[in-house]
Automatic annotation (TrEMBL), chain B:
SUPFAM superfamilies membership: Cna protein B-type domain (SSF49478)
Species whose genome carries this gene: Kitasatospora gansuensis
Protein name, per record: DUF1416 domain-containing protein
Gene Ontology biological process terms in this record: carbohydrate metabolic process
Pfam families listed in its UniProt record: DUF1416 (PF07210)
Higher taxonomy: Bacteria, Bacillati, Actinomycetota, Actinomycetes, Kitasatosporales
Spans traversing the lipid bilayer: none
Length: 278, 81
């Protein structure tokens, strides 16, 4: 797999806006952003309403994912191009989710909504109509999903990459600095985790750094890519971006995203927690 | 609210609000957070006390501003690009 199989630039998307086999999908943290405007012919997936189980803390199940994609008019053979705000945090999360349920061809728009806006490219308010499909999902590929026990067992043995900001890692903040600090669980990080904030993967405009720069980043931070790696953040979306870098761009097969992340780990009874910058 | 350290302000071009992004960088220049500006060009961060750099990104321009935030206060920053 090469970079061009998983990542497309804004020019490519522009050229394929009317390609019936390409479905552009916006996924935002701010789910109202789509209503303001969006890339022409793009449909919306709401990461909270559409992708989460309404009762339990978990994803929609296989049947739920099938129903969602069928309703959105996405077929099994379509090329799905995901983009969103926050430097593609939630688009990366959706990408990982599409892979979890085995979609064949899914790609990210490099730089997401920010790059598109900074390029002053066209955004529209019209919502496209797509005929419903009969989408068939596969069983969850748990080779890319880590659970809490995987994380506890990885302490001191596997690579643990904490992709939150240094202040969240050290325990000085509980959430990113643009969000209210309302969480009540314990601050800190998983012992032996390396702090490599997600932003180090990206340029100011939200595009990913080169493969060479990314490899250099992880090796300089002491991540031995020959070992299995688990990435986590607060709720699993920023770490989905790091998972994308390691698993999709750099082709490392042994990388999992821990979607429970700090909001789960930092609330567990009895697990070890480290504080401070190291 | 009183305990929170807030950095907020607006981004304007020739006195008019601009739609773009503001990044919050820590004292070491490391990325901490980013928000899009509102329809009226405004932004807000919940930070901690200390020295920060705000980096405004708008189509065709990037502007940095250094600010010092203090505990429990709202630091107002007007950025012209």
């Amino acid at each position: 797999m090469s970079r061009s199989d998983v990542l497309v630039d804004a020019d490519w998307v522009q050229e394929n806006l009317d390609n019936p086999k390409v479905v552009v999908v916006e996924v935002d943290e701010d789910t109202a952003a789509y209503e303001l405007n969006h890339i022409r012919n793009a449909v919306r997936i709401d990461w909270k309403q559409d992708l989460q189980d309404p009762v339990r803390r978990d994803f929609v199940d296989q049947a739920g994912f099938e129903a969602l994609l069928s309703k959105k008019g996405i077929g099994n053979d379509d090329i799905v191009v995901l983009y969103g705000g926050n430097n593609n945090w939630f688009a990366s999360y959706a990408y990982w989710y599409f892979k979890l349920y085995g979609h064949g061809d899914v790609r990210l728009l490099d730089g997401g909504r920010k790059k598109w806006e900074l390029d002053a490219r066209e955004l529209v308010v019209e919502v496209p109509e797509r005929a419903a499909t009969d989408y068939k999902a596969q069983e969850q590929n748990t080779a890319i999903r880590a659970y809490r026990d995987d994380v506890v067992n990885a302490i001191g043995t596997l690579n643990l990459v904490d992709v939150r900001s240094p202040d969240e890692f050290a325990g000085r903040l509980l959430a990113p600095a643009h969000l209210p600090q309302e969480q009540s669980q314990r601050p800190g990080h998983v012992p032996s985790a390396r702090n490599i904030p997600w932003a180090k993967n990206a340029n100011d405009d939200g595009t990913f750094k080169s493969d060479e720069a990314l490899k250099e980043l992880y090796s300089a931070e002491g991540v031995d890519l020959a070992k299995d790696t688990i990435a986590y953040c607060r709720i699993g979306e920023r770490s989905a971006l790091t998972w994308f870098v390691l698993h999709e761009l750099l082709g490392q097969e042994n990388v999992k995203n821990y979607d429970g992340s700090w909001t789960e780990y930092g609330s567990l009874v009895g697990v070890p927690i480290a504080l401070g910058d190291n | 609210m009183a305990k929170e350290t807030i950095i907020q302000g607006s981004v304007t071009r020739d006195g008019e609000p601009v739609n773009g992004y503001v990044r919050l960088l820590d004292e070491g220049g490391e990325f901490t957070a980013e928000v899009p500006t509102s329809a009226t060009g405004q932004f807000r961060f919940f930070a901690r006390p200390g020295k920060w750099t705000l980096r405004a990104l708008v189509p065709g321009a990037t502007v940095d501003r250094v600010v010092v935030a203090s505990q429990g206060a709202q630091t107002e920053v007007a950025i012209a690009v």
